[in-house]
Every structure is written in C-alpha cells, then in structure tokens.
Amino acid sequence: MPSNNKEAPRSVIRRLPVYLRILDNLIRNEVEIVSSRELSEETGFTAEQIRKDLAFFGAFGTRGTGYHTSVLRENILRIIGLDEQTNIVVVGAGHLGNALVRYNTTKNPYVNVVAAFDVDSEVVGTKILDVEVVHSSKMKEVVEKYDVKVAILAVPSDHAQVATEDIVKSGIGVIFNFSPIKLQVPDDVYVHNVDLSIELQSLIYYATSAEDKI
Amino acid sequence: MPSNNKEAPRSVIRRLPVYLRILDNLIRNEVEIVSSRELSEETGFTAEQIRKDLAFFGAFGTRGTGYHTSVLRENILRIIGLDEQTNIVVVGAGHLGNALVRYNTTKNPYVNVVAAFDVDSEVVGTKILDVEVVHSSKMKEVVEKYDVKVAILAVPSDHAQVATEDIVKSGIGVIFNFSPIKLQVPDDVYVHNVDLSIELQSLIYYATSAEDKI
DNA sequence: TCATGTGAAGAGCTTCACAGCA
DNA sequence: TGCTGTGAAGCTCTTCACATGA
Questions:
Q1: Which of residues 154-183 of B touch A (CB under 8 A)?
Q2: pTM attached to this predicted model
C-alpha cells in the first residue's frame, strides 16, 4: 500500500464523501474513467486539491488518463470505513430526530439506522418508517447487539448532557450533536457539533453585508 | 468607530453567534463583566482567539477588567446584522422543512420564520406552529412583503434547482441549502451548504479509525 | 500528449509573547 | 496587578508550477 502514515487532515476527510457521491453517479451511468478536472467541475473544489486529497492515501490514478471510477470508489469506501454497512442510532425522537431518522434511512446509503431512542412514553413503541422508537434505558443493549458506532443526538438542550452519558455508557465513540450544548465527554469520544441556530445566525452577516454593497 | 476595513474572516463570523449565546445567558443571570478566559471556558476556543476575534471589529473591552456583557452583545448584534429582527422563509415543508420551521421558531431567537413554501397541495394551506405553508408560486409576493433576506432550502434533490430559481427570482440573496446538490446561482447570491449525509459519512472515518487505535 | 503526483510558494488562521492601559 | 489588544511566529491547508510516466 503506497499510503501515508501521517494523520489525514480533517478537510480531506470532509471532502471524501463528496467524491464518493459523484463516483456513485458516474458508475450508475457506466462511466469508467474520470479526471480530476471533471471532478472539479462537479464538486467546485480545484483539480489540484482533488489530486492532493486522493494522493494523500496513495496513487489511485493513471497518468495521462485519469481515475478508474470503480477503483477509486472502492478505495474511498475503504479509507472512510464505509466498506461494511455502518449501524447508527438516533437519540431523540422529536421533530428533528424524526426527520433525521427518515433522512438517513432514505437518503443516506452506507448507513443503517437501527433504532431511535426517547424517554417520552407517548413515542416509545411507535415507528418512524421501519425504525422502532425504543426507551433510552435500553440503549446499551441495542448498541451492543448491532455493534453501533455512531449516535446522532437530537434531544432538547436540557436533556443533552444526560443523553450523552447514556450514549457514552453504551459504548458509542462518535456523537453527531445537534443540540446547542458543549457536551462533556471522555477524551476518547469524538463529538461533531452542528448548531443550526448558529449557522443561520452567522449567515445573516452575509445577508446584510451583501446588501450594503449595493 | 475603531473598526477594520478588511473583510472579516469566515472563521470569525462563525464564532460570533457562539459568543452571542453565552452573553445572552450571562445577561439573563445579571452578570455584567466577562473576561476572555471565562468565554474560553464556555466555548472551548482559546482566550487569545476570542480577543483577536473581538478586536478585529474594534476595542470593546477594558484592560484589566474584561468585557461589559451588554455592550459586547450590542456590538456583536450590530456586526452580524441581528440588531433588527430578520425575516426568513423555509422552502420545502416535508419532514426536514417541518422540523426546521419548528426549530427556528422555538429555538432560534433573532430570526422570524414568516412562511414555509411547498408545491404539494396536501400541505399548502396547513400550518406548522403559527407558520403558514404557502404555495411556492407566491414566494416573490411574500418575500417582498416581509423583506425576507434568507431562505432555508429543504426540498428533495430533484426539486432543489427549480426551487432555487424561485428563491433567486424572489430577490433573496442568501440560501441555507440542505439538499445534496451544487446549486447554480448568480454570483451575488450566497449559498451555504449543509449536507447531512456527507457530514455523517465523514464521521464514520473517526468511528473506525478510533477503533483501530485499540 | 495528457493527466497524475508532488515539492515549493502562498494564503489564512491560530498560538505565542508581551506591550499597553485601567 | 490583571486583562485586553496586537505584532510576530507557527501551523495547516490551498494553489502553483512542473516533473513524471502511461
């Protein structure tokens, strides 16, 4: 394997799934070869950056030709760890949790939502598509049974830390956090925060400063 | 005004709403002064970074003391453009759009969702909380009436480009895009993409590589 | 010839170290 | 004294320019 021993930059890891989606489309259309310039047009990233990203993990292309779509796809799947189906859970079955279960079940290939968790007896026992809403007290059991690696956290702010402790105790090491709380977790747990209020508020800056330019 | 003429770095703009939220909490608890070190503890950003961020726009603090919470809050509101209520719309009233209307209505102060848009006659005319679901053909009318600056786009992929054209024609200049499509827009329209599938897929990398370290 | 792979230069952002001031 | 404000250094990632090889 001609790959590198250095830690992969986060920016590269964030772009890999973008390449993956394009490759899936190309392969669906039976395109066998793609160049970095073509990938650049589809993604908006520069061709040099795409080559650097891919070259970081090894030489997957052919000079003068380009990249073999299916070879590149296999390599990216392996690098990310999507070469085997990944089981995830959604914690919180309110409106946002509900939408996230549906989204990842119908729109996200490569992941499999095995359960949603909630503490509200109104929703425990119901289903979202084919996904059962289970009481949070059973999290460890489900996580061990399905070897779940990632939890999406979408509970109200005042439940977020408690729910996080359930998640950590169940053995999950990666949390995709939608609550606007700085979660307290052990060092070996990886938290990725998406704060929709904050992202929207920062966008307002561009809405108003763009207007000033008129 | 002791502020700067250079364009503000994106990274700074993304952090400003984080400071804003902390300040809102402090002011609610009648705390009048806060230091960069205290803000650091709340946010996880370094104290130097916080001082640099704030100093970019002017000298808002007092040496030896710290920052006056309400003064700093007012300044950040003005910088972002949140000093007056910002009207937004949500385009797409499916499960994700529904959740986003609720989220921004109940959890996001400083923005006001004036309408949701859809083309499905099943949902047009219904309400999400107090927000009416309006047919997309009336977008321009609503946007002009409420001086809407930002649209959240949460429609299925195959409708995303068409919906974008409605948004652009209505006069909106900032789009918060949840669809996994590279939207084609004029140069003066600002698009911010959040692709939930891609973010989750890139997280898998950390789930599996963390495991390898055992 | 043509597109990849890559050292070097450049840009942008963060951290350091300390001057400046209440 | 204590905390802000800031030039300088450092780091990370991107762009450039071109050598490399099918």
A1: 173-174, 176, 180, 182
A2: 0.94
